[in-house]
Amino acid sequence: MAPNPSRRRESSRRAILTAAFDLLQEVGYAKLTIEGIAVRAGVGKQTIYRWWPSKGVVIFDAFLMLNEGGAGEAVLLPDTGDLHADLTAVLRATVAELNDPRYDQPLRALATEITHDPELAAAYAERLDKPMRHAKRHRLHSAQQAGQLAVDLDLDVAVDIIWGPVLNRWLQRSGPLTIEYADSVVTAALNGLHPRPRNDRVGRTVDGRAV
Amino acid sequence: MAPNPSRRRESSRRAILTAAFDLLQEVGYAKLTIEGIAVRAGVGKQTIYRWWPSKGVVIFDAFLMLNEGGAGEAVLLPDTGDLHADLTAVLRATVAELNDPRYDQPLRALATEITHDPELAAAYAERLDKPMRHAKRHRLHSAQQAGQLAVDLDLDVAVDIIWGPVLNRWLQRSGPLTIEYADSVVTAALNGLHPRPRNDRVGRTVDGRAV
Amino acid sequence: MAPNPSRRRESSRRAILTAAFDLLQEVGYAKLTIEGIAVRAGVGKQTIYRWWPSKGVVIFDAFLMLNEGGAGEAVLLPDTGDLHADLTAVLRATVAELNDPRYDQPLRALATEITHDPELAAAYAERLDKPMRHAKRHRLHSAQQAGQLAVDLDLDVAVDIIWGPVLNRWLQRSGPLTIEYADSVVTAALNGLHPRPRNDRVGRTVDGRAV
Amino acid sequence: MAPNPSRRRESSRRAILTAAFDLLQEVGYAKLTIEGIAVRAGVGKQTIYRWWPSKGVVIFDAFLMLNEGGAGEAVLLPDTGDLHADLTAVLRATVAELNDPRYDQPLRALATEITHDPELAAAYAERLDKPMRHAKRHRLHSAQQAGQLAVDLDLDVAVDIIWGPVLNRWLQRSGPLTIEYADSVVTAALNGLHPRPRNDRVGRTVDGRAV
DNA sequence: CACTAACCGAGACGGTACGTCAGGTCTTTGC
DNA sequence: GCAAAGACCTGACGTACCGTCTCGGTTAGTG
Question: Hey, which residues 21-50 in chain C have their CB within 8 Å of chain D?
Answer without folding.
Answer: 28-30
